[in-house]
Design goal:
Largest interface: A-B, 44 and 44 residues
CATH superfamily of the largest domain in chain A: Jelly Rolls
Structural class of chain A: alpha+beta
Oligomer: homodimer
Number of domains of chain A: 2
Largest sheet of chain A: 4 strands, antiparallel
Strand order of the largest sheet of chain A: 2-6-4-5
Amino acid sequence: MPTATSPPQSAIQNHLLAALPEDIFERIAPHLELIPMPLGEVLYESGGQLHHAYFPTTAIVSLHYVMENGASAEIAGVGNDGVVGISLFMGGNTTPSRATVCSSGHAYRLKARLMMEEFNRAGPMMRLMLRYTQALITQMSQTAVCNRHHSMEQQMCRWLLFTLDRSPSHELIMTQELIASMLGVRREGITETAGDLQRAGLISYRRGHITVQDRAGLEARACECYNVVKKEFRRLLREA
Amino acid sequence: MPTATSPPQSAIQNHLLAALPEDIFERIAPHLELIPMPLGEVLYESGGQLHHAYFPTTAIVSLHYVMENGASAEIAGVGNDGVVGISLFMGGNTTPSRATVCSSGHAYRLKARLMMEEFNRAGPMMRLMLRYTQALITQMSQTAVCNRHHSMEQQMCRWLLFTLDRSPSHELIMTQELIASMLGVRREGITETAGDLQRAGLISYRRGHITVQDRAGLEARACECYNVVKKEFRRLLREA
DNA sequence: TCGGGTATGTGCGATATCGCACATACCAGC
DNA sequence: GCTGGTATGTGCGATATCGCACATACCCGA
């Protein structure tokens, strides 16, 4: 732990850090910095240099692509089940996507050099990061398929469920505008869909807050993508 | 080279094999089998075991996902610039997607065990495979964004260009039905779009054959996704 | 408590794609 | 040269989402 005063999160709250063998965790622990991740912060820009790897505890980060005309779409989300900055060890050092904080919270960060050093030992850290990358690939693939074939309501339910899984509470702090930009759809469409879900008793919301009332109901309205990705994460990372 | 009689392709036709340092290439070369890849062959099924890694020379392989209701969509394509079977070394051994041959030709294949052995040396083969995986991730991400925001015509042009880049000639052997299933759209939509492109003089076609007449014209009608992915492949794999 | 900025609600025509039905045309193989 | 199976062409109503315009309502902070 980097600080003497106990932080509001422990590194164990990030599943990847928790899954590391003790000796490796103790080697990197002194270098883990717990930092606040305010809503909207840009962790890296398309093509930009990465200086740290981020292991979210309570924050949620969105990897998305912004097109020439300004429209954008989320490619994948990263919460306490993952790490931001895989291109550090995959070799390219940058990616054409952007990473921003879409739900504020905290994360542990690790300097790029240290991350790469540990990865290059070609031991458990490397194997864990590669398995996680494989899970992330599944998430991205499923996003592609989902964007092609599933309705806005299905996609919104899927997105809420993923976000819920990575959140400490049942209340999500986010505007409909934010959700729309994540899914790459119109804000008005989200307003309508959210209204439907609220009338059905699945969620309730007020200005910038969404509370999930009926998780099973959301799962029933979500597309298969939610479960495919969730199962694959469990399969690949159950080593923990 | 595995055979004494010179095969129609040389391993050098696969860019990844060509990019390997000589000593490593010579170590695996005796184990590379040149095999024919007939149209429609399934290299692996969702969740199925992988017995080989495939390095296409003239064949093109499509990674796609088939949904519960039977609809499907391509996630990424692999040609002589890549390898099929990254989950072998990423750790999961399987993926929820399917790989099928969408343009017949040949590929070199390498037994899973040998692939993993070489990867686990944590040397140039590992670094090359990881860089390729990073490029593949870009392709998948861009597919997700493209599915969300770009028109069928833009997507068809993008797809034709990628296929052309991986083909030995300007004539592609494929039906409109096939293209439709790759893009996850209706066959009739492809018929209409193909008609437009032919009237514009960009392509010409007949029953199962498409010939590209004006590559620059296709590029002009394709979305930015084509160039983003192409540049990223070049950046990551220019080491060759 | 009161305002102002922002989040949400609603309506409506435009558009792209879908789903289905069926017509036509090609060409491989007899 | 036929012919059957398959690939391609075409039409049309249904649907989902978009793009825009504007109304309303919330809640934060002065």
